[in-house]
């Protein structure tokens, strides 16, 4: 089995639907296969995903309404060129969009704002807050003195406590807190929760082949990131009306790897590491209740926010986002005439990933410690975070049918990045089944197409304030997605 006779079957094993719907924000799968093609090579492809992600209010949510499909369709292109400069040196450029998100809620549920109905804090939280403040006042020196004075006038202890409590509730600070909360409730955001995150990668790779069977490669990666997020509905409490727009910005990372091949049996194995990439972005953040809170300092003061925290909330700052490191293992080998088996294993370090926009973070640091019970977050909380690393695997078989046609079949699995997950991407891993076909009008050119069906993992969705705990606000079950890919290639 010479490599030449299997080249079609080998190329068809790399259809552009490799990643498409993976854990967390993973999208393209960051394949290096185009750089490992023999000779000079060019390809361009596009992948399209059509997900269905539906659920139901659950967990700490007091209602149990249905949540319609919140997964938006999206597409992303890819392209690559590889040049064999000499027998020992090669060069390549790979463009892809490795990470991203597209989602939007609709209908009547806790992720859609209804002015006049939604509140900044649930009634239970407000009642607990007032009860706590009354108790603190009664235990203060001033409260104790007032109770003693009333008892000296002939009131029973219970009567005295009742009168002092009522007097506290009618005091100016409490009335100001109530008025401020009422105004804040009237100025919550309108519309629906939605998110869009886009990244672009350009990898510049240099390869060295000290012997024909070995390829050592490394290079730089330029990556851009931009995004928009809107939080709406009672699920997000005070953040109902939060918007963030992340201006596109770029930074650099690196990759390195090694590949080994035995062309006589169509064997090829490679391992590729990609580094983290740190971004410092300018995020324009707005919160609809912000102006209300500024006009009503009694609200934040009543919630226990200190003057220093209030000052920090109104000071501009930079948002830091670090896209994760990853490792890809790729393997293929001939198993019979005109037939190859292939496998891919990918690890992505999502456990160390989080997004905390600057102003969002300052608000969370101020309000996190006063959340009820085990929801307390003494150091604030993130907009998005994940609790586990992602592991995904794909195995399949590609076969050359004749000089012009080849096909493949594959099965894929993804672990997800933890459960519960973010409300901005409420699925946990998947199983998939893929089919691909390739047509080669000439020995140098091909057109490949593929389709994959995904069984998406069930997930519990939690807000940023709940992340790290077991509480959640919705469940998403029995969901699916279908992906399509098209790729053209040219060997020269």
UniProtKB/TrEMBL annotation:
Does Signal show up as a keyword for this record?
A: yes
What are the GO MF terms of this UniProt record?
long-chain fatty acid transporting porin activity
- Which is a Gene Ontology cellular component entry for this protein? cell outer membrane
Q: Recite the UniProt keywords alphabetically.
A: Cell outer membrane, Membrane, Signal, Transmembrane, Transmembrane beta strand
Stretch forming the signal peptide: 1-22
The highest taxon in the source lineage is Bacteria
Localization? Cell outer membrane
Please tell me where this protein is predominantly located.
membrane
Q: Per UniProt, what is the membrane topology?
A: Multi-pass membrane protein
User: InterPro entries given for it?
Assistant: OMPP1/FadL/TodX (IPR005017)
Q: Which PANTHER family match?
A: OUTER MEMBRANE PROTEIN NMB0088-RELATED (PTHR35093:SF8)
Family to which the UniProt record says this protein belongs: Belongs to the OmpP1/FadL family.
**Know the name of this protein?**
Long-chain fatty acid transporter
